[in-house]
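#struct-help
A.M.: can someone run this one for me? Single chain, 131 residues.
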Amino acid sequence: MTRDEELIRLALVARALAYAPYSGYQVGAALRTRDGRVFTGANVENASYGLSVCAERGAVIAAVLAGARDIAAIAVATASSPPAGPCGMCRQTLAEFSRDLAITMVNDRGEVAHATIDELLPRAFRGDALP
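D.P.: on it. Structure tokens below:
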């Protein structure tokens, strides 16, 4: 199994663990840091919708708490066809931790799409733009 196949597998596993009683839209994510560590996340909804956490941001938070700051790749699993990409908030969060992030989007029917963070969020706002 390749490293990308492993990320896809873990994203699908994480998707099954999502807590989405309001939208019914489960999302799982698995990211790999440049040093080879893997972190997963799933969306966790809340009755107060603004308090919900996306799968991708959950995985980033887990990575940061483990001391990882350099993300190389992420797989995002949804039920959408074609596979859905990260939301805008997640794109901005991912851009904070990688300038050349490889993003794989999958669904449980085996459809796969690929993009980079620059393709999904061109001209991202980053810390080097701050005075």
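A.M.: thanks! The first strand starts at residue 28 and ends at 33.
D.P.: also worth noting: The first helix runs from residue 3 to 16.
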